[in-house]
Design a protein that fits this description.
With about 110 residues, the protein is mostly helical. Helix content is about 80%, strand content about 0%.
């Protein structure tokens, strides 16, 4: 069992990582959607990298990783790489199906 001080430290680190992730996300979105300095695939790839970076940071500092955000990060990176390689991926359909499966498995796991 972990001492209470370590658990509180992990929660505060997780909170700071979440705040930093949101700041990076909003900054990246503002730069890309207002000023359009990069190709569209780079914008999507950057969002995926931010989401995955926060998830990895939470893992490194002993926090919990949400499967939902991990999957969303992977989808954004995949969509960005696919766009840059000029491969047509049904991003929205894949993301909705995966989110639905995650919701079903989560609700099934909490009932049993």
């Amino acid at each position: 069992m972990k001492p209470i001080a370590i658990v509180k430290k992990n929660r505060s680190v997780g909170r700071w990582l979440d705040i930093a992730g949101w700041i990076l996300f909003v900054s990246w979105a503002l730069i890309n959607f207002l000023f359009k300095p990069f190709p569209e695939g780079i914008a999507t790839l950057g969002i995926g990298a931010i989401v995955l970076g926060v998830a990895v940071g939470r893992f490194i500092f002993g926090g919990s990783i949400s499967n939902f955000w991990l999957l969303i990060g992977i989808f954004f990176v995949t969509a960005g790489v696919g766009y840059l390689m000029q491969i047509d991926l049904p991003f929205l359909a894949m993301a909705l199906i995966a989110c639905g499966i995650l919701m079903l498995t989560h609700s099934w796991a909490t009932k049993h």
